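Budget justification note: compute hours in this period were largely spent on complex prediction jobs such as the one shown. Inputs:
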Amino acid sequence: MNILFVCLGNICRSPMAEGILRQKFRDNGIAGLVESAGFESYHINEPPDDRAIETAKAHGIDIRAKRAKLFSSEDFDRFDRIYVMDEKNFRDISFFIRNDQDKAKVDFVMNLLEPGRNSAVPDPYYRRIEACEEVFGVLSRACDVIINRIKDGSL
Ligand code: 4NP
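Corresponding output:
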């Protein structure tokens, strides 16, 4: 099962989600790609934001090796599921969708926790580090749902 997380800058939310799910894949012996990407180019090839690195580190996850990259249409060919963080990501990704198969792969990550509501994982970039910790908790619970669904065969 190959999973891609997408946010705007690919330096805060989606790199944390990537680190969390990679760890849970390892812990649960699940094989597959876990990556992340963004839509805006300001931070391409940069490591995650210091606050995201620190927050992940506090939970025993090292995301320092991640480098920000842009989403591309080929990602629809490499990944089985693509989770966006908010409405803007959902709009941005819609311009890349080529067919119904691509479309069916995309969902809001929060729909794993609150099905059908299309809620956002708020952008912590302009907030204090505590916001990163909140985001980390939400993403970790969403990733638990992914793990459970892979295990029971519903994903
Ligand atoms: P992210 O946060 O989408 O969670 O990585 C952001 C990071 C950088 C910017 C915006 C959001 N930015 O505008 O530079």
